Model the fold of this input.
Amino acid sequence: MKGAVLYGRRDIRYVEREEPKIVAPTDVILRISATCVCGSDLWPYRGIDAPAVPTPMGHEYCGIVEEVGAGVKSIRRGQFVVGSFFASDNTCEICHAGYQSRCAHVEYVGAGGAQAPLLRVPLADGTLVATPEVPPEDLIPSLLATSDVLGTGWFAADAADVGPGKTVAIVGDGAVGLCAVLAAKQLGAERIIAMSRHDTRQKLARDFGATDIVSERGDEGVAKIKELTAGLGAHSVIEAVGTQESMMQSIRCARPGGHVGFVGVAHGVQLPGQELFYAEVHLHGGPAPVRRFLPKLIDLVLSQKINPSKVFDLTLPLAQVAEGYRAMDERRTIKTLLRP
Done:
């Protein structure tokens, strides 16, 4: 089969790869219905934390179960399933506490490269969630979104303690930040402030439920959030970028006692201890435990109460994966959906 492989800085290729096989009895093989390019894929694509050897890419997926290992009990051949980028047994103490992304037996599903026609998913019973039946074609993009970008945005909102009556500020207008707007709306936030400089992303933020748009960044952005909140800062702040500037902007936008949910993959972030000490804000984040939220998110999609598929503003055949990366790298598109 052919799939996406990263060879070096801005060198993504659609090349022959070995088809995945059952390795452990708890594995399944999926026939991918849709996959996509993640914002976090752009870090190695741009040469930051780039792999030393050609590496299969992609960790967002949904599809039909094609082969089932002998030890799999609840997932059946022919089911349509969605899973997280981290495989989890969903039985250990950490999983039971809701942090399947740090499962005692965690495996990175993306190691197999989901930007391909087939994918091996380890720990299938604890990782995958099946839909009641094979969904209609028009819902597949939204179901794909639940596997990471929506699940991560939802975790960010949960970590930031978003709820009724609260003001939320979202730092980052990529697909995760925009899905965090959608999550904040669903969780009942009273005021949702999206921080964005881009017209198309501002419009989608409004569509998802943003009540205010702030285009300023850094200290100017912090000042604007304070101005909109009577000088106090937001109750909840979501950080969805992963840089030093975005993290500090998020912390400084929060009021004393407020919560910051951070989900941007951190690069070069160093927190000043004294400022953090006197800020008196809650910090909670990391790799999203998407599996915790998948059943609820899938139900919201199937009942058509939410439509996260709007973050996919470019759809390409998998063979054109290189253009999908370029479009996101150059910010010509929010998120690229790929069809095998």
About this structure: The chain has twelve helices and 18 strands. The two ends are 10 Å apart (CA to CA).
